[in-house]
# Entry
Amino acid sequence: MIPYGRQDIQPQDVEAVIEVLKSDFLTQGPMVPRFEKTVADKVGAEYALAVNSATSALHIACLALGLKHSDWLWTTPITFVASANCGRYCGAQVDFVDIDPDTYNLCPKALEAKLIRAEQAGKLPKIVVPVHLCGQPCDMQAIHALSQRYGFHIIEDASHAIGGKYQGNYIGDGRYSDVTIFSFHPVKIVTTAEGGMALTNNKQLADRMDLFRSHGITRDPDLMTKEADGPWYYQQVALGYNYRMTELQAALGVSQMERLDEYVEKRNALAQRYDELLAHLPIQLPEQHPDSYSGRHLYVIRLALNKLKVSHRAVFEQLRESGIGVNLHYIPVHHQPYYQSLGIEYDALENAERYYVEAISIPLYPTMTHDDQNDVLNALERSLAA
Ligand SMILES: *Cc1c(COP(=O)(O)O)cnc(C)c1O
# Structure
């Protein structure tokens, strides 16, 4: 089976983790701050908080932005459930904005139309979570302009997108958002096994996220309500969690970051080769906006069903049977029984619905060979002709 994605672990990664195992600190040592600095310096952010998953990063970002029961969080329906769940963790209501039919990212025009309606109903969102699907950045300039007009915060879910660029700058520099989050799950672009990070240029947000990732406990005199009782003293000033990343994970992350640009270049080269190999097939290939240099986490094709005799499901099943580890990113989040159970009347979200019945993610990862890609092409040709 050619998987849809997989990690690349080199001997120096193994060595870096072993070094930590032999050291004094397995957690709360020097490696986590080093990983944070490595990522922050790379992408051009002031502050970075490493945590045990991107899901945790989304949660502490929502908490730091003060999301509460009476608030709304909006995101795209075409994402992993975590982009929406972070709102529910804070007790907020979650709603969805339709996607752009070409980039599959949250559509700024649909967002504006929804904001106009929400303003009239007195239900403007407190936070909007654009997701850089497949690694391609959203139209952040347009979303940011709307945030200025309607007064919402922005958390960029860049789980797919580390190493990519928007308007020539690394995603994560925060020029159009309050917080950006990355995921280091093994299928993503660089890995720490499990892991995530929240980046911001706002010191107050960074301090608050730091509290929430570690029990709400601080040793910083500036954050305490009174003077320390003694050198042992700390205070719990908020209800936080244990979302800490381990030293082993951080060491793996530091080592992986050395190859970030190389990974993204390889992914782009393979994606371009797919563009050429698949151009003759009755499918829609992923369109790239000129402002975007995608991290190319995923390569999604869409079947031109009106030109085919076979169904989406049959093509998917036949590809799996041919040993091609295809996947579908994603089932629209508002279809999930949990989101259906909340009693919210979601918009029609027509572009998302159409995407769902046509999309298939085909394999893409940096160590994929041209032979692997040719196998994907052959299997696709067979299954589409069936
Ligand atoms: C993977 C992913 C997440 C969650 O990442 P974890 O590190 O597994 O918690 C969130 N959002 C998107 C879009 C993802 O792809």
